[in-house]
Design brief:
The protein is an all-alpha fold and 163 residues long. 72% of the residues lie in helices and 0% in strands. It has one domain (20-152). The chain has helices at residues 3-45, 47-50, 55-88, 93-129. Helix 1 runs parallel beside helix 4 and helix 3 (55-88) runs antiparallel to helix 4. The longest helix is centred in the first third of the chain and has 43 residues, at 3-45. The model is unreliable at 134-141 (pLDDT under 50).
């Protein structure tokens, strides 16, 4: 074999490896986008059934959705940069693609962590109130628990005792 044939063979192998790596990155980005989209859709679908209207739980849920939407945006950006690198034949495609992929993965992890935090808050409220029903969307005031500060509790009219 001549050096020209050896060089051409190595270039061909490098192209195959690069293509395989690019396909793996694209598949990972698609997976993150699909999972984040599914989690947002499912949690939004059942939010009214799972939601307890307590301020911090709703804030955590919305923050989770924001993180998951950010994950989707960065995943699309990574695929876009990868397509551009493939179109132009860039050898340094990893430098373009990996930063948005990393941000997409980090936002996905944060969104899932916040969603788990939301679930913990909601289950804690259910356990504290001792029932399986959802807590009304207004602030809840319990005589036996201090889950909501008394200043945040709605005012109630005193009831008259019947003789």
């Amino acid at each position: 074999m001549t050096t020209t044939e050896t060089t051409a063979q190595k270039d061909g192998e490098a192209r195959v490896q690069r293509h395989s790596a690019q396909e793996s990155v694209r598949d990972l980005a698609k997976l993150i986008i699909s999972l984040a989209s599914a989690v947002v859709v499912l949690s939004a679908t059942f939010a009214d059934k799972l939601s307890h209207g307590v301020g911090i739980a709703i804030v955590v849920l919305y923050m989770s959705w924001i993180c998951l939407a950010t994950s989707i945006v960065f995943g699309v950006k990574a695929i876009s940069k990868l397509a551009h690198a493939q179109w132009t034949g860039a050898d340094r495609w990893g430098e373009w693609t990996f930063p948005p992929m990393r941000r997409s993965w980090q936002a996905f992890q944060a969104g899932m962590g916040l969603l788990l935090g939301y679930a913990a808050i909601v289950s804690g409220i259910q356990a504290r109130h001792g029932d399986e029903q959802s807590v009304p969307a207004v602030a809840v005031s319990c005589a036996n628990c201090d889950c909501i500060p008394r200043s945040a509790a709605p005012l109630r009219k005193p009831t008259q005792s019947v003789p």
